[in-house]
Write a structure and sequence with these properties.
The chain is of the alpha+beta class. The chain has one domain: Nucleic acid-binding proteins (OB fold (Dihydrolipoamide Acetyltransferase, E2P), Beta Barrel), CATH 2.40.50. The chain is built from two helices and eight strands. It has a five-stranded mixed beta barrel with strand order 2-3-4-6-5. A hairpin with a 5-residue loop joins strand 3 and strand 4. The longest helix is centred in the first third of the chain and has 20 residues. It is globular and about 30 Å long. The N and C termini lie far apart (36 Å).
Length: 171
C-alpha cells in the first residue's frame, strides 16, 4: 500500500500539469517554456505551474521529508519542502552573506533557511506568510534544524539547491 502512495505522490505534479494544459484547474502563474535551463545564480521563472489551492497538498507531501529528517536527527540530507514563511530574520552579513528566515512545520517546530546571497539572488520583498518551495541540505539541531545549500554549486561537487518564490526560481 505504501508503494502505491509513493508512486501517486511522484505522479501528482504530472497529473496537475496535464490538468492545467486542458484548463481543468486554474493556474496562478504560467509555467516557463519547456526545455529552458535556468542559468546558475539567477532567478528564473520556475517550470511547474502554481496551481490554485495546491499549496496545502504540496506542503503536506514535502513536509514529510523534513519531519523524517528531524525525527532521525539527520545531517547533510537533501530535502524539498513547501511551506509558508513563518518569520523573516535579519540577514547574516558575517562571512558569506545569507538571507535568513524560518518556516514552521505542522509539528510546531521551526526550520531555519539560510540562503547564500553571494551565490544566488536575494529574495526581494519576502514576508511572513509568503509561500516558498525549497530544495537544499538539511542539518538537524535541537531548534528544529537548518536548510542550506539553496543555491547552485559553482564547483559542481554538491547537488544544487533552489528556492521557488513568487513565480521565480532562485538558485
Amino acid at each position: 500500500m505504501t508503494e502505491y502512495f509513493s508512486c501517486l505522490r511522484q505522479m501528482t505534479p504530472i497529473i496537475l500539469a496535464v490538468l492545467t494544459c486542458f484548463n481543468l484547474v486554474a493556474c496562478t502563474t504560467e509555467p516557463a517554456p519547456r526545455g529552458q535551463q535556468p542559468s546558475a545564480g539567477q532567478a528564473t521563472e520556475f517550470g511547474s505551474p502554481r496551481i490554485a489551492n495546491s499549496a496545502t497538498a504540496d506542503r503536506t507531501d514535502y513536509e514529510q521529508e523534513v519531519l523524517a529528517a528531524q525525527k532521525a536527527q539527520a545531517r547533510k540530507v537533501e530535502v524539498t519542502v513547501a511551506e509558508r514563511v513563518f518569520k523573516v530574520l535579519p540577514d547574516d552579513r558575517q562571512g558569506l552573506p545569507h538571507q535568513l528566515f524560518l518556516i514552521q512545520l505542522d509539528n510546531g517546530t521551526t526550520v531555519k533557511i539560510a540562503h547564500d546571497t553571494k551565490l544566488a539572488p536575494y529574495l526581494q520583498n519576502l514576508q511572513a506568510g509568503d509561500f516558498v518551495r525549497i530544495h537544499g541540505e538539511y542539518i538537524w539541531n535541537n531548534r528544529g534544524g537548518v536548510i542550506h545549500w539553496t543555491h547552485h554549486d559553482p564547483g559542481g561537487r554538491h547537488e544544487p539547491g533552489w528556492i521557488d518564490y513568487n513565480g521565480q526560481r532562485y538558485q
